[in-house]
Amino acid sequence: QVQLVESGGGLVQAGGSLRLSCAASGNIFRINAVGWFRQAPGKQRELVAAIGSGPNTNYADSVKGRFTISRDNAKNTTYLQMNTLKPEDTGVYYCNADIEPMGRPRSDFWGQGTQVTVSS
Prior knowledge:
Helix content: under 10%
């Protein structure tokens, strides 16, 4: 059973930093693209950053220059370093990964989410 577990969320003042982690576990053959999404109260879930197996990256315009996505393939873990945080970055952050489990079809997996709250 493949699982994604996010960690690293919390409460931080504006201008501060947080580092989120997304750890994949289970019988995994390959992890392809991984994305971080966030959902603010009353808003739709949006893509914040994504990283391919290349590892090519892309970012939402609102976080460019402040957030950095990276991955450690040996640990099956993807990170989101968030600097110069703003109150509008507040939301639940979710990890999504395109994974090929051992002996099972390639599928899309989601973590349970981690809360990030930025106070002004």
